[in-house]
Amino acid sequence: VGREGVRGGEDEVEKEAERERLQELARRLGGEFVMTSNFDPRCSHMLLLAPKRSEKLLAALAGGRWLLKKSWLDACDQAGGWAAEEEHELYASESEEISLGKGRPLWGGAARSRRLQRELQGRRIFDGCTAIIADDTFPAPPTLQRILEAGGAHALLASEMSTHMPAMSSASSLLVVVPENATSDHPWVQRAATLQAKCVPPAYVIEALTLERSQPPPALPAGA
């Protein structure tokens, strides 16, 4: 079990007390509480005290993990064991949005859709994809790498690559993630064009997870 809380504010003491209460509940029920600053692949269930667009939430979405309200652990406590998760899942009507703060929306059906894709189809959203992440992206390249890998991608940092390109089944399976304001003279925009690979900004990855789309977000034009 992992948890995503809120830092700062006048009521931080109250929030910290609630975190500690939930941690104790999870341990008493026999669960392991994962306490890390970054997403941990061991996490199967993420508790959300207040949803925000963080690495942990995005990676949990990508991996099709359970994203749950804290009421789930209270229901488990009352039942004396692990309760069914679905009625406590982070979910709104599929025509509605959930706020992640700072004007950042989450499609109401995102968590359930990503989870069912993994459970029923045995697939994650970035399965079969190889991604190369250029320097100076925001979120930072290691953060994007963890999010993409949680979703099944083989993600590589451009700063750590050798001169050899990774093996791929086709150019269509290669994403090159470049900074939002990258122009045609950016070296990885040029390499993506040479490879006939899809060149995308970080928003492509985030919107693929958080927004409802019948088609994937648009890529940057080759060489542009």
From TrEMBL:
PROSITE patterns recorded: BRCT (PS50172)
A GO-annotated cellular component: site of double-strand break
Superkingdom of the organism of origin: Eukaryota
InterPro entries, per the entry: BRCT_dom (IPR001357), BRCT_dom_sf (IPR036420), Slf1 (IPR042479)
Annotated SUPFAM superfamilies: BRCT domain
A Pfam family the protein falls into: BRCT
Gene Ontology biological-process annotations: DNA damage response; positive regulation of double-strand break repair; protein localization to site of double-strand break
Family annotation (Gene3D superfamilies): BRCT domain
Domain BRCT: 1-90
Name assigned to this protein: BRCT domain-containing protein
